[in-house]
Design a protein that fits this description.
mainly alpha; Receptor-associated Protein; 3 domains; 8 helices; 0% strand; flat
């Protein structure tokens, strides 16, 4: 009986400790989500104020022009909703784009650090010298070096960098850098991570090369074939189909519409191009 009581006591003790651990992790998640919620609320309030102001201005201007209150109100509501969603997403889009720019330069920056350490420099000196190079990755690590010189530990400075940049690869790199600094490990793991990122970029460049063939065909069709077909359609249609285009309409289509389509295709190709191929 006493043995059974001791087993039950041990069971409840382990269960309570696991519950305490779970509650601790849960509290951490709640604290993190509340911090993110406060940041989101700040963006939400500013975005809502700006979109409402612009929407009311649009309502006033459109109402004066078309002299229809309900229709102008509908247009202003659409403008408010579009602006609100856009302004909410804009900071996240900027952060993601900056993270991609840093990721694109990260392999070469890491290999630079590995080379500096191999020539005999200590970790902090190698990090400081590598951060003097030009580029987004070097700028971010220059901020890390500056934080360390102001009194922050390496772990704290790298944690701030992880907050600024939303990237799993950068978190892996910073974790490896912290281990090398604290435990004096070899740079082999860091070099393998850089080579892995370079291999990933090589695969992405090959995939983009295959897609570029399709993009080129679309651009040729939009810039050359479609305008030629339109010219033929206008000439033939005016004789057999009784279609009539005024000179102004033809001029606007050729001078404005087709160049806008070409620009749209080029913007699409640019958005699909990996950032490391743009440098």
């Amino acid at each position: 009986m006493q043995k059974k009581f001791e087993i039950n006591k041990k069971f409840w003790k382990n269960k309570n400790s696991s519950l305490l651990k779970f509650s601790f992790i849960e509290n951490k998640i709640k604290n993190k989500s509340s911090m993110e919620r406060r940041e989101f609320d700040k963006y939400k309030n500013n975005s809502l104020k700006l979109s409402l102001f612009i929407g009311l201005f649009v309502w006033l201007c459109v109402g004066i022009v078309i002299q229809n209150i309900l229709f102008s109100l509908a247009i202003s509501i659409v403008v408010i909703l579009f602006l609100f969603v856009f302004l909410i997403q804009l900071p996240l889009m900027k952060k993601k784009k900056h993270s991609r720019k840093v990721e694109a330069e990260l392999p070469f920056f890491i290999l630079k650090i590995v080379m500096e350490i191999k020539v005999g420099k200590d970790f902090f000196r190698a990090l400081k010298d590598a951060s003097k190079e030009k580029g987004f990755a070097a700028e971010e690590f220059a901020i890390v070096v500056n934080d360390i010189e102001k009194g922050s530990s390496l772990k704290e400075a790298l944690a701030k960098m992880n907050d600024r940049i939303d990237s799993l690869n950068i978190k892996r790199i910073t974790s490896n850098l912290a281990n090398i600094y604290l435990h004096g490990g070899k740079t082999l793991g860091l070099k393998k991570l850089a080579q892995e990122l370079l291999l990933k970029q090589k695969i992405e460049s090959k995939e983009f090369g295959g897609k570029m063939v399709v993009y080129s065909l679309v651009f040729i069709a939009v810039s050359a074939i479609v305008p030629a077909m339109f010219a033929s359609f206008v000439l033939i249609g005016s004789y057999f189909m009784k279609l009539s285009f005024s000179p102004i309409e033809v001029f606007l289509i050729i001078v404005l519409l087709f160049p806008m389509l070409d620009a749209f295709v080029l913007i699409l190709i640019n958005s699909k191009t990996p950032l490391f191929l743009k440098n």
